[in-house]
Write a structure and sequence with these properties.
single chain; 277 residues; mainly alpha; Serine Threonine Protein Phosphatase 5, Tetratricopeptide repeat; 2 domains; 12 helices
Length: 277
């Protein structure tokens, strides 16, 4: 699930810039959040990571100059994801902690916005092996998301998928399988959710292999990999940059389990999409 940029509405509560300002507070000049995200999507659709970094750092400086704390939160969240993808651990952790501190500064730690920031930071910590720290943040996000009825289904699906990966790394297999079950169920109601379900199937195959060993789990693993391929082929999602990302993400899993033709097909589809952007 960890490939999409985060839409501003996922973690920025509506706010009137003229309300609740303390006397003498610096005038806020807000960055154009939606434009920042749309331009970032353009860079990522071309896999232009250097351009994406320059773009985000520019708007981070603009948010800082404009005393725009919520704009800083948006950009810090995106930088966490960017540096996770480019495997720059220290930078990912630095911006994760900055984002978490901004939640405290704005007294937003119980909001849906905070849940998304917790997931984003936790995914970075998990990606670099800091699994206990990640699990702490995932559990905070889970408590928030599940207590807010307005939490969108895809946010919950992403949480369950990423939290399950962390549980597998910690050997908490029963908890991981329960989370994968919930991810599969909830993504059935989301347009284009078949892509996320395919990722869940491959992740679950890895979990079963890690717990039981491939020889014992072979039948179950192949059933999960077959299902993942079916979901990718039947997905009603547009063949855009995110579809290419999912193809790229899934291809090594298919190759690992001996589905070499499927892996090659997915890699070629990703390249075709990227070449057209």
């Amino acid at each position: 699930m960890a490939g999409k940029t985060i839409p501003p509405e996922d973690y920025l509560e509506p706010r009137c810039l003229l309300c609740n300002e303390e006397p003498g507070a610096a005038q806020i000049r807000s960055i154009p959040q939606r434009r920042v995200i749309e331009k970032l999507d353009e860079y990522m659709s071309r896999r232009d990571y250097a351009g994406a970094e320059r773009h985000l750092l520019y708007w981070l400086s603009e948010a800082e100059l404009g005393h725009d704390l919520r704009g800083r939160l948006l950009v810090c969240n995106e930088l966490v994801g960017h540096y996770r993808k480019t495997r720059e651990k220290e930078k990912a952790f630095s911006f994760a902690e900055q984002a978490l501190e901004l939640l405290k500064t704005q007294k937003m730690e119980d909001s849906v916005s905070a849940g998304t920031t917790f997931v984003n930071a936790a995914t970075a910590y998990s990606a670099f092996g800091e699994n206990l720290r990640a699990l702490e943040l995932f559990r905070k996000a889970k408590e928030i998301y599940e207590s807010h009825p307005q939490t969108r289904a895809e946010l919950l699906g992403g949480l369950y998928n990423n939290m399950a990966l962390d549980c597998v790394a910690l050997g908490k297999f029963a908890e991981a399988y329960a989370l994968y079950d919930r991810a599969m169920e909830i993504m059935q109601s989301v347009p284009g959710g078949a892509l996320e379900q395919a990722i869940t199937c491959l992740n679950r195959a890895d979990a079963v292999t890690a717990e039981k060993g491939f020889e014992e789990a072979e039948k179950q693993v192949f059933a999960l990999v077959d299902r993942a391929y079916e979901l990718l082929k039947q997905a009603d999602a547009p063949h855009d940059g995110y579809y290419a990302f999912v193809c790229e993400k899934c291809a090594p899993g298919f190759s690992y389990y001996g589905y070499f033709a499927a892996a090659e097909e997915l890699k070629k589809e990703a390249e075709r999409i990227y070449a057209g952007n």
